[in-house]
Design brief:
The complex is a heterotrimer of chains A (361), B (356) and C (489). Chain B is α/β, with parallel strands linked by helices and 356 residues long. Chain B is 35% helix and 35% strand. Chain B has helices spanning 2-18, 73-81, 100-105, 108-116, 133-138, 146-159, 168-176, 216-223, 280-309, 316-323, 329-335; strands spanning 30-32, 35-42, 45-55, 61-70, 87-89, 95-99, 125-129, 183-190, 193-203, 206-212, 230-235, 238-256, 259-275, 340-351. Chain C starts with a helix and ends with a helix. By secondary structure, chain C is an alpha+beta fold. Chain C contains 15 helices and twelve strands. Chain C folds into three domains: 2-114, no CATH class; 143-257, no CATH class; 272-440, no CATH class. Chain C is elongated, with a radius of gyration of 30 Å. Classes of the chains: A mainly alpha (361), B alpha/beta (356), C alpha+beta (489).
Amino acid sequence: MIKDKDQVPPLMAFFLISAAQIGVGVLSFTSVINKYAGHDAWMSIIAAGMFIHLLIWIMYKVLNDYKGEDFASIHRSIYGKWIGAFISIVLSVYLLLLAAVVLRSYLEIIQVWMFPEVKIWALLLLIMPLIYYIISGKFRIVVGVCFLGIVYPFVLIFALIFPLKFSNITNIMPIFDHSLLEIVQSSVLAMFSFLGIGALMIYYPFIKDSRNSQKYAHYGNLYTTILYVVICFVSYIYYSQHEIKDVIWPTLGLWKIVELPFLDRFEYIGISTLFFVILPNLALYIWGSSRTLNRALHIPQKWISIFILTAVYFICIFVEGREKILQVSDFSTKIGFGLLFYIPVLFVMHFISRKVKRNAS
Amino acid sequence: MPRRYIIFFILIFVSVTVNFTMPKRVIDKIQMVTVVGYDYVDDNTINGTVITPTFLQKGQIMDLVYTGNASMVYDLGTKLNTVASENLENGKLEVVVFNKELAEHGIKNYIDFLLREPSIGSGLYLAVSEGSTNELLNSVKSHKGAGVYLSDLIEHNIQRQKHPETNLKTFSYSIECETCDPFLPYFKIVDGKPKIDAIALFKKDKYLDKIPIDEAFVFNILLGDMDNGDFILEKKGYKAAIQNIDSERKIIVNQHNENMSLQVNIDVKGVIREYTGKRVLHDKEKIEKDLERELNKKAKEMIKNFQEKNIDPLGIKEIIRSKVRDLSVKQINDTYPSISISTDITYTNMESGTRR
Amino acid sequence: MKKKLTQKKRQREFEELFNDLKNSDDFIDYQLEHDSIPLCIGYFNSAIDNKKIEKFVLPYVQQSDYSDLKEIENVIPITNTYLTNDSNEIRRKLLDGFLFIHMGESDQQYLLIPVPLFKTRQITSPEVEFSVVGPKEAFVESIDTNLNLVRKRLNIPELTIKKLKVGTITKTKVAVVSIKGIADTNNVETVIQRIQDMEMDQVIDSSFIQQKIADNTNSPFPQLLDTERPDRIAAILAEGKVAIFVDNSPHVLIGPTTLVEFFSAFEDYFLNWTIASAFRLIRLFAVFFSILVTPLYVAVLTHHFELIPKELLGTLVSSRSQVPFPPILEAIILELTIELLREAGARLPTKVGQTIGIVGGIVIGTASVEAGLTSNVLLILVALGALGSFTTPVYQMGNTIRLIRFPLLIFAHVYGLLGVSICIAYIMVHLLKLTSLGRPFFEPVFPLRLKDLKDAFIRLPFDMQNKRPFMVRSEKVLRETSKNKHDSS
C-alpha cells in the first residue's frame, strides 16, 4: 500500500491527466489532423476527446475494482506472473519511448528555431539531472511539476488573441463540408494528441480517495479537449488549408504575428515556456516507466530510473533529423495506439477473469 | 546525498562549457538587415540591395548599403557577408521590396526563404517598386534608417486605412489560397521621396495591374469592414471631403439553377470634413445621393475590371466557396469572370464637424 | 567518624573550587571583619550588579552581628536566596550572577543571593522590519524581555513555553513557544526534538539554530522565518505556528513557513486589505523582476535580438556600441559591483555606508558608462533589480534572490531563453521539494490550497479569513470569534 503521506489529493487527477496529454504535439497537431477532414478537423478533436472520456471511464471501472493496485499487479492477477510481467515491460518501454520522442521533438524545435548549432548531447546533460531530481523525490513532486506545467503555460493562451486580427472566418466555412467518415478518420489522427492517459493505471494508487478522482480526470480531459479545439480553431481561421499543410509547427506560426510595444516575435518566449509543458510529460512518463519496471521486476526504482534516463539520453542522441524523428515518433504512437485500444480489451479480460475466479471458488 | 549533487554539478558544468562556444548573435556584433530590395537581372539572377543600420550614439543611424547579384535569396545573404564587416542577420527584416519587372516574373520563389526562415516574423511588409529598388531604398533620407522609415510609412497608411491590411502573412495566404489573389503597396519615387502610389494587383504571384492610391477607398470598402479612410467627392457646383468612420460589407450569394449572382451590400457611415457648397445640413441628401452614385459606379467598374483580368483581390471567390456547398474550387474559378456582381453602396452622413 | 570524613572531603572540594575560581581575575572574595564571626563574600565581578550589592546586601550584612546565615537570609530584601553546601551548585550559580556569603571557617553552609547584572539594550523600534503604522517595539537580546513582550500580547494560560539549553559551551537558553490547543503538537514536538538533537558547542544567535534544524540544510532558501517584531510573533502563534526564542538574539524564528510568507510584510495587516494586497503584488512583481531582469537582458541581447521591437533596437544597440564586452560579462561586472557596494555598505558604520552607497551608485555608475565599460540601459536594469531585491521584507530572502541571479545569468548566456526556462525549472522543482518542519514550502501554490490563497499573493479582509491556515494543521481550524463560538454551540 502507498503511504498516506505520499498520496495526492483527488483534484490532482485533473493536472495529471491533462499534463500527460499536452506536450510538444500542441505545436504541430493542427497540420496533421486535417489530412482527411480539412477545415472541419476541429470537430474530430471533439470526437477524439469523447472517445478518450470513454477510455478513462473504462480505466476507472477496472481500477476501482482492484483497490489500491496498479497496472503491474492487476496484470499479474489477470494473466499470471509471466504474461503480466511482459505486458508491464511493454508499457514501460512504451512510456520510455514516448518520453524520448517528446524530448527529441522538443530539441528539434530548439534546433530549428533557436540554436541550429547547439550540441544536443550537451544540452541533454542539463535536462537529465533535472528529470532525475524530480523523479527521485516523492510522487508528490512529479504531480507538482504537472501542476506547474498546466498553470504556468496557461498565459500562452492569451497570445492566441493576436492572430485573430489577421484571420478569416471564411476559412472554416462551410462547416460540415466533409463526410462523417472523414471526420472520424481525422479523429483517429487527433487521438495521438491525447496519448499518455495510460499512465493513469500506474499512478492511480497514489491518488488519495482515488474513486472520487474520476470526475477530476474527466475534467482534465475536457480541459485538454477545449484547449486543443481553441488552438485548432484559431489555426484554421488564421491559415487556409492550403497554407497549413506546408507548415510543420502552425501554433508557433500563430505567435509569429504577435507584436507588443516591448516585445516582438512571441514564439521565442513560447518555445522556452513550452519547456514547462514538456517537463511534466518527461517526468511522468519516466517515473511511470520506472515504477512499472520496479513493480514487475522488483529492482530498486532508483537504479531503474537511472537506466531509463540513460536510455532516453542515447535515443535522443542517435535519432537525428526530421525523418528519423518522425519514424521513431510514428513507431511510439503506434504502440501507444495499441495500448489505447488495449484498454477495452483489459476491461473485457477483467470481467472474464473475475467470472472465472468466482466460478472456481 | 552529496555524491548525487556532485554528479549533477559535473553534468551541468560539462553541458554549459561544451555549448559555451556556440555561435552567439550579440546585438552589436551583427548587422541587422532592415530592408531588402530585389531587382530583376535575368530569369536566373536577381540583384539585391540590402540596408543595415549602424547605430551611432545619441540616436544617430547610418545606413550601410550592400548590393550584389545572386540566384537565390539566401545565396545573396552569404555573398554579401563577404563584404559586410559583421554577419548579416535577417531577424529584424521590416520591408522587402521587389521591382516591377521581377514582380511581373513572379515572386513566389523569393518569398520562400522568408517563410522558411524561423527568425523572420510574419508582420514583415512586402512591396513593389516601380523603378529599381536600389534607387528606391537609396532615396530614403531619414534619421530612422531606410527600413524603419519604409515600414512606418506603410504602417501608418494601413492604420489610416489608406492602404488595405497587408504583410507577409496575408500575402502568402493569398498566394497559397486557390480562390484569391494578393495585392501589395506599389512604391514610386516622387520628388526624390518614396511614395505609395498605388495598390499593386497580382495574379497569384505575378504582378498584373495597379489601382491608383486615390481610388483605394473604393477598393477598401469592397474588401471588407473598414472604420477609416477618406474619399473626395468632386461634383459640379461643390466639392466634399468625406471621412469614413464605419463601413460594413455584406455579400449575398444568390443561386438560381446554375445561375449565380452576387450582391455586394455596403453600408458606409461617414463624416463630412470639408465642403465647398452652402450648408451641409441643407445639402445633406444631395451629397449622400451623389456619393452613393459615384461609389457604386466606381465599384462596379473596379469589379468588372477584376473579372475581366480574372483576378480576385477582393476574396469574392473565397466567399462563394465558404457559402456554397458542393462547388469545386475549379468550378468557382471557371465561373468567376462571368458571374454577375451587383453593388449596392449606401451612405449615411453622421456628422459634419463643428459647423452646420 | 564518617561524618568527619565527608566533612574533610567537602573541605577539599571547596578548596579546589576556590582555586579554580581564582584562576579568573574577575572573581572577587573578601572577608568582612566582624566582631564575632568573620563573613566571607565572593562573586564574579563580571556577572553581578555592584549597585545591587551596595544597596541591598552590604548595608544589611554590616548592620549587626549575625550568628547564623539564616538570619541574614531573612534580613536581605532579595527573593530567591537559598542555602546550599553543594560545591557544583555554587559554581553554577556564581556564573549566573549570584554572590555567596559564607560564615566562619567551620560552617559548610553557603548563602547564595542573586544579584545578576542585566545589561540589555533598551527596547527600540524595529529596524529591519520597520513599519510606519502599528506597534514600534522590537525584540532585544534578552530572552526574558522577549518572552515578556509576547506574553504581554497573548495574556492567556494556553501560551506554553518550553525552555531548553543548547550548546555544549554556550549553554544558550532556548524557548519553544506555542499556544496549546491551537498549535499542532506534532510541530511543537518536531521543533523540540530537532533542537535537542542538535550537536553544537556554541549557539550565538537564532540563525545558528535556523541553519541547524532546517529540513534541507543545503538549500539557499531559508526555511524558517525570522522576525524581530513581537506583534508578528503574537499573530503567528495565534495562527497555530511555533516560535523559537534564543537568548542573546533579537530575532525569533517561526515555523512552519511557506515561501509566500517571506514576501509578506507584517505591515500588510495594518493597512486596508485592498492597499495591502496591491503592495504585496507590487513586492512580488519586484522580486520576479529582480530575479529575471538581467538574465533576460543577457539572453535577449546574446541570442534573440529578434525579440526586440524596432523602436527599442536603436536605444539598446547604441547604448552598447562602446562596450567592448559581451552582455554576460557586462552584466556580471555590474551585478558584482552592486554586491560589492552592498557588502561595503553593510560592513561600514551607517553614516559611512550611506556615503559609499552614493559614491558607488552615482560616481562608479556614471563613470563606468562614460568609460564605455557598461551600457547605461543595463545600469538602469541592474540598479532596478537590486532595488527590487531589497523590497523583500525578510532580509535573508533578499540574499537568496540576489544569489540565484548568478546561475541564471550563466544559463542565459549559454542557452538564451531556454536556459532561463531550464534554470527556473530547477528552482521550481527545488522549491517543490523543500519542506518547512515537514510541511510543503511551496504551499498554497502547490499543494494547491485555495483557502490559504486568501492570505498569500493578496491579503483578503479579516472577515474572510475565519479559518487558520490549513498548512499548520492547527488543532482548532476555526478562528474563535464570538460569532464562531455562537455558531458552534
